[in-house]
């Protein structure tokens, strides 16, 4: 199947929460996840696919942030959903970078495509509003670890938007990969299966799953892969995309294979930072 979000040649390189930053001294900075500086670093490397998470503030502003609370990653505390935007805007990731507003990220890098993980039920309608204002329908792929939340987003978004598999979708795909007779069980709604190698002690990815997904017209993206040797094995197995924090490493692997695309060099920073 064709889809605007997936129109770039595979394999896709997706910068997980912007990825790790390597500073001028060659020091790897892992604490600046989901910040404008992390996304800019990935774009400067040539990444055109950026992965992020979203939560809505108490007054409905959609923030690019992984955790439910600010406590771990910033110099403030409290649940994002319980706070107004003006309070969340004061927080600094690793004590230095503001929490970005999703709408600002979409505007800062208009050529980039964003993989968006809905982290809360309250984020669904604000995401719809952001996509209406930005007309970014073809630039996003929406996913969630909550199948009900993902299905709700599929119903409520005004226009067709690329979505990845939710947990139930992945389970059905995994069962369908066991036999051609079971292929009808797999959902035809997602455009891609974004999965880990393992779920606990259970292997999720297999060559049969990849083959089944491809027969159904789905791409297979694996997260979160930071070991370059594992990246090599996955590419050899035929995966269509890799989600990584190790943006420098994945670029090196794909460059050596002659598969690194000419990245769109976006410029600018987010502006709504309090």
Keywords:
274 residues, alpha/beta, nine-stranded mixed sheet, 30% helix
Describe this structure in words.
- The protein has 274 residues and is an alpha/beta fold.
- Helices cover 30% and strands 20% of the residues.
- The protein is built from nine helices and 15 strands.
- Strands 1, 4, 5, 8, 9, 10, 11, 14 and 15 form a nine-stranded mixed sheet that branches. Strands 2-3 form a two-stranded antiparallel ribbon. A two-stranded antiparallel sheet has the order 6-7.
- Strand 2 and strand 3 (28-29) form a beta hairpin.
- The longest helix has 11 residues, at 124-134.
- The model is unreliable at 263-274 (pLDDT under 50).
Content of β-strand? 15-25%
Uncertain runs are 263-274
* Main β sheet profile: 9 strands, mixed
Which structural class should the secondary elements be placed in? alpha/beta
SSE series: EEEHEEHEEHEHEHEHEEEHEHEH
What is the share of helical residues? Answer: 25-40%
Shape: globular
* Cα-atom radius of gyration: 18 Å
- Please tell me the overall pLDDT: 94
Distance between the termini: 42 Å
């Amino acid at each position: 199947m064709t889809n605007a979000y997936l129109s770039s040649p595979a394999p896709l390189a997706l910068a997980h929460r912007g990825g790790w930053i390597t500073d001028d001294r060659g020091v790897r900075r892992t604490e600046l996840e989901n910040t404008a500086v992390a996304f800019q670093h990935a774009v400067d490397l040539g990444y055109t696919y950026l992965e992020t998470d979203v939560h809505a503030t108490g007054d409905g502003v959609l923030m690019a942030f992984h955790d439910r609370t600010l406590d771990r990653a910033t110099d403030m505390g409290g649940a994002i959903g319980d706070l107004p935007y003006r309070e969340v805007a004061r927080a600094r990731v690793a004590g230095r970078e503001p929490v970005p507003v999703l709408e600002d990220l979409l505007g800062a890098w208009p050529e980039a495509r964003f993989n968006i993980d809905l982290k809360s039920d309250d984020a669904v309608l604000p995401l719809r509003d952001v996509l209406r204002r930005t007309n970014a329908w073809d630039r996003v792929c929406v996913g969630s670890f909550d199948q009900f939340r993902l299905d709700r987003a599929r119903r409520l978004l005004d226009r067709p938007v690329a979505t990845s598999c939710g947990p139930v979708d992945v389970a059905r795909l995994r069962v369908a990969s066991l036999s051609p007779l079971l292929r009808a069980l797999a959902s035809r709604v997602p455009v891609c299966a974004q999965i880990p190698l393992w779920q606990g002690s259970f292997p999720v990815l297999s060559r049969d799953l990849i083959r089944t997904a491809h027969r159904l017209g789905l791409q297979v993206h694996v997260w979160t892969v930071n070991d370059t040797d594992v990246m090599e094995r996955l590419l050899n197995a035929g995966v269509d995309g890799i989600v990584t924090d190790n943006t420098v490493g994945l670029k090196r692997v794909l460059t050596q294979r002659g598969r690194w695309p000419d990245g769109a060099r976006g410029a600018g920073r987010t502006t709504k930072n309090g």
